[in-house]
Specification:
Helix content: 40-55%
Mean pLDDT: 94
Strand content: 5-15%
Number of domains: 2
Number of helices: 10
Order of helices and strands: EHEHEHEHEHEEHEHHHH
CATH topology of the largest domain: Rossmann fold
CATH class of the largest domain: Alpha Beta
Structural class: alpha/beta
Length: about 270
């Protein structure tokens, strides 16, 4: 491998499965660093890929037979299992590092461990940013990863260096711990945002700063697909408990308000 002039990592041949907006966002930085990219996707992105200097494969078998150092899975959470099981994995020419970037982590870990050949390495990752938060660079943004099954440390290190060299905060964490924390943070954030979306809250002439924060939260979460939101719930085993606790907390707040109203009305009657 040759050394990239724009990065301290060695250049890699990276194959991307699922070339939607998030994959395209990651690809731009990878290309800038000098890595060679190829992609395959359910949607025909051949024209866009050509504009980005990414080799696009309609045939998944040919894609897997290409000389990939890394295969990066960028599918939706809901479609991961179906996509992986439909890939002709017997076409893999040699041991390859397979990584994912899904917003849940135990699910892809389990799917990849079950589906991939024993000699394929597995790296589960979650870039905690996207096209909006990362539009001005990735410096200081968190990149979580777990080395699930790594024999070729050099290739794994070179792939992680893509993010480290951009200034990401590199956080090594188990998939289980990630999902526990994500249920309390990412899923909870999306749930509040979606709830505000259901209420269809709008700006008023007397907005407080707090209300403007809620409006922005609604806008940010509603930009993401419902597939992403439902994937955070269906495939994170800790999310269900968080939703129940949120419902319980809302019930408790309502009970306290009703109790205070009863007390105040009682005081008014005795005055």
């Amino acid at each position: 491998m040759s050394t990239s002039s724009s990065s301290s990592s060695s250049t890699l041949n990276i194959g991307i499965i699922g070339f939607g907006p998030f994959a395209q966002f990651l690809a731009k930085t990878m290309i800038k660093q000098g890595h060679a990219l190829r992609a395959t996707s359910r949607t025909d992105y051949s024209q866009l890929s050509a504009q980005m200097s990414v080799q696009f494969f309609r045939d998944r078998g040919e894609f897997l037979e290409a000389d990939n150092d890394v295969i990066l899975i960028c599918t939706s959470i809901l479609s991961l299992s179906k996509v992986v099981k439909s890939m002709p994995l017997d076409h893999l020419k040699r041991p390859t590092l397979v990584a994912d970037v899904l917003s849940v982590k135990e699910h892809p870990r389990d799917v990849l461990l079950q589906a991939l050949p024993e000699d394929s390495d597995i790296l589960c990752t979650h870039p905690m940013f996207g096209p909006e938060s990362g539009k001005n660079g990735w410096k200081g943004l968190t990149f979580m990863y777990e080395k699930v099954r790594i024999r070729d440390e050099a290739t794994c290190s070179n792939f992680l260096q893509i993010f480290a060299s951009e200034g990401c905060r590199m956080l090594q964490m188990s998939c289980e711990e990630h999902d526990k924390l994500a249920a309390k943070s990412q899923f909870l954030t999306h749930t509040i945002g979606r709830t505000l979306g259901e209420r269809d809250i709008k700006s008023t002439p007397i907005n407080t700063k707090g209300f403007e924060t809620l409006l922005q939260l609604k806008e940010n979460t509603m930009r993401d697909s419902f597939d992403l939101f439902s994937g955070l719930f269906v495939y994170n085993r800790f999310a269900k408990q968080e939703l129940e606790q949120l419902e319980h907390a809302l019930h408790n707040v309502k009970e306290k308000l009703v109790q205070r109203m009863v007390e105040e009305q009682g005081l008014e009657k005795t005055e």
